[in-house]
Amino acid sequence: MIDARQLTKRYGEKTAVDSLDFTVRPGTVTGFLGPNGAGKSTTMRMIVGLDAPTGGSVTVNGRRYAQHRAPLQEVGALLEAKSVHPGRSAYRHLKALALTHGIPQRRVVEVIEIAGLGSVARKRAGAFSLGMGQRLGIAAALLGDPQTVMLDEPVNGLDPEGVLWIRNLLTSLAAEGRTVFVSSHLMSEVALVADHLIVVGRGRLLADTTVRDLVRAAGGDTVQVATQDPARLRDVLAGPGVDVTGRIGSEELQVTGLTAREIGLKAAEHGIALFELSSRQVSLERAFMDLTRDAVEYHGSTTGTEAAESLGRTA
Ligand SMILES: Nc1ncnc2c1ncn2[C@@H]1O[C@H](COP(=O)(O)OP(=O)(O)OP(=O)(O)O)[C@@H](O)[C@H]1O
To answer: Which fold has domain 222-279?
Structure first.
């Protein structure tokens, strides 16, 4: 559990994080969303004590990070590209980390497996691709088998297989009852994996909500499903607040009141094959853009004249 109370960070005149109040709960993936410069990284750095708050406080499982006796076993974090000695292998890097934190060596082998680094673990980390570097950072974050896992933009640099791997990893960590907090500036990415969302802009809290409520508020909660067995899927999905429509004899159903993820999970649970599963993500993306419109620091639509004027002002 991560608990931020009136958390504030100022750098001179700039308020990077502005009186944030939020709670990240165990057993679920919480997405931390906001446009570039919204204060996500600064908040995460304060959670693990790499930056001191100017005001307010943030605790992990009831204590400030520095007050934990074995912090690596409490919170595993992937922040911006970790400094790994380029001449050191992934294995030796993790081994050194384990040694200095009293973590058994067998855990090093385990996290190498979890991170899919088995075939490159003995190679120099300096020769790693961005994606391999991310995997090594994630292996390091999981080393202490922490109850809380926090990842800053983890899909950066990962190929499609890596992105899928991250999604599955986050979901299974949450299913084990851990607190999973993951930042991104892409709603489409977060919506696939997170149940809960904390949205920030210019350091302020814009929304503390569920993906489901945000979708509902955007009026885009229809999910298109095509299945082998529509009658059975209707029965499986039936419940309060859920509405399923579809033509008789058609494989296609339109579902409201459940997310694509919930439908996919229920179908899998009952062994029902799906041929299509698509939510109206465009409206979800739009809901995020509407929420953060006034908080975006750099608008791509700035005209040449405006850009020149603003350059002139700062010059
Ligand atoms: N050390 C620092 N000194 C001065 N300003 C800083 C410092 N670190 C961050 N900032 C400023 O604080 C604001 C928030 O930055 P932060 O990196 O936390 O945002 P972010 O949401 O993580 O953005 P991004 O997605 O671009 O990483 C930005 O305007 C940034 O320029």
So the answer is: Alpha-Beta Plaits (3.30.70)
What's the topology of domain 2-86+128-210?
Rossmann fold (3.40.50)
Task: For ligand 1, atom 29, name the residue with the nearest CA.
Answer: 37
In angstroms, what is the span from residue 203 Cα to ligand 1's centroid? Answer: 9
pLDDT digits (tens, 9 = 90+) for 145-176: 999 999 999 988 788 888 999 999 999 999 99
**Residue from 41, 48, 181 whose mutation best tests the ligand 1 pocket (most atoms within 8 A of CB):** 41
Other C-beta atoms lying within 10 Å of the C-beta of residue 229? 16
Residue pointed to by tokens 């100017």: 54
| C-alpha to C-alpha distance for 253 and 224, rounded to whole angstroms | 6
Tell me, in angstroms, the distance from the centre of ligand 1 to residue 176's CA: 32
The 10s digit of each residue's pLDDT in 255-266 is 988 889 999 999
Other beta carbons within 10 Å of 112 = 21
Vertex 301 angle, CA 298 and 307, to 5° = 65
Q: What are the two backbone dihedrals, phi and then psi, of residue 169, each rounded to the nearest 5 degrees? A: -60, -50
Q: Whose CA is nearest to atom 8 of ligand 1?
A: 42
**What residues line ligand 1, using a CB cutoff of 6 Å?**
11, 14, 16, 34, 36-42, 185
